[in-house]
Specification:
Layout: E1 5-8, H1 12-23, E2 28-31, H2 36-39, E3 47-48, H3 50-58, H4 63-68, E4 70-72, E5 74-79, E6 82-87, H5 88-92, E7 96-98, H6 101-114, E8 118-120, E9 123-129, E10 137-142, E11 145-150, E12 153-156, E13 174-189, E14 199-202, E15 208-214, E16 217-224, H7 235-245, H8 248-253, E17 259-273, E18 276-277, E19 280-282, E20 288-289, H9 297-318, H10 322-349, H11 357-372, H12 374-385
Parallel strand pairs: 1-2, 1-12, 2-8, 5-14, 12-19
Antiparallel strand pairs: 3-7, 4-7, 5-6, 9-10, 10-11, 13-16, 13-17, 14-15, 15-16, 17-20, 18-19
Helix pairs in contact: 1-6, 1-9, 9-10, 11-12
The structure holds adenosine-5-diphosphoribose and P-hydroxybenzoic acid.
P-hydroxybenzoic acid (PHB) binds near residues 45, 46 and 294.
Amino acid sequence: MKTQVAIIGGGPSGLLLSQLLNKAGISTVVLERKSRDYVLSRIRAGVLEWGTVEMLRKAGAGARMDAEGAAHGGCYLASDGAMFRVDFNAFLGRNVMVYGQTEVTKDLYAAQDAIGATILHEVDDVVLHDLTTASPRVTFTQNGQSHAFTCDFVAGCDGFHGISRPSIPAEVRHEFEKVYPFGWLGVLSRTPPVRHELIYAAHARGFALCSMRNPMLSRHYIQVPLTDRVEDWSDARFWDELKARLPAEVAADLVTGPSIEKSIAPLRSFVTEPMRWGRLFLCGDAAHIVPPTGAKGLNLAVSDIHYLSDGLIQFYTQGDPAGIDAYSERALARIWQAMRFSWSLTTMMHRFPDSSDYDRRMQDAELAGLMQSEAAQRAWAENYTGLPY
Ligand code: APR
Ligand code: PHB
């Protein structure tokens, strides 16, 4: 077997890359460790930057998003009692699209099926060989049988725990990490969203977020200590705590109901540099993790794929390596901007267990500054809705 681009991982990064390359006549093989059902059972964030919306349309995977997604022209930020709206439309004439990542992945699988792409599921023991030669080789097992193929390039789209990043020698990699001393408890419920747009709420009891998937499906999060377990949080306790952290007029409107999913996720920031080694490119969560506060995880994966797919198409159609040579630098420039935004929003909105009175006053001053300044809100909106590619 031989292909032009081997893609490790069938999450949103791998599927989108495969789709864009296939559409340009470049052959790919996607290797995914899990089953398709498992990949589609993962619940992740739900806010798409407009650049992401346009990339999904370009890939031929945007029709259901356009029909079922909700364009939002702003969102709310709350601090203890007070709440204000950042108006993306007024500042920038831009929206974000609220559409769950699980649905994005489903649509990408459907688009890949429609063009007959090769996706191998439940593969194990993927190993990358000869990455610094012109003809890398990929070996793996499936159903107990060993397989191998050669390719021109490998795209490592296999997430934070994948094998692609550690295939780059440790002495070449420079890794940057920040782990936050709390997690997010997320709850999905068949209840109407409390407002039409998202609410990010800072409170002395900790951060809370009101998000949604559709008019009858809400997604809420509250900051919790890392030592908490899901079993510690009955539905009743969760709703009480969420209400306590929201402005009173919002809490009064909150419709509660049984949870249909409940999980706790830790918050971290992570970047590895460079994102290319020989003929291996890292994309998405394989190269970087952001805390969910700015909803940048999927959006950064999509901007990586924008730079890499353009570079590979330029290479195959014009014989020009400029785009792939610039990939790591271009992708990282945008990633660090999104890292900064996610870190600053996380720092401004959460209660840190070791924070001093001074630290808390700084958080209050930062939120008050944002509330009072149109210039600050505009800059915030630019980052939230997505910096240009
Ligand atoms: N071999 C093959 N596949 C693997 C391997 C491996 N050794 N290790 C991991 N995978 C698969 C995982 O099962 C997963 O389906 O790679 C895929 C990686 O998908 P994601 O973790 O979703 O990462 P990515 O596609 O980069 O998506 C970007 O945005 O909001 C974030 O975390 C969120 O998933 C999201 C991401
Ligand atoms: C979500 O809807 O799951 C969501 C929305 C915004 C975030 C994080 C998660 O910042």
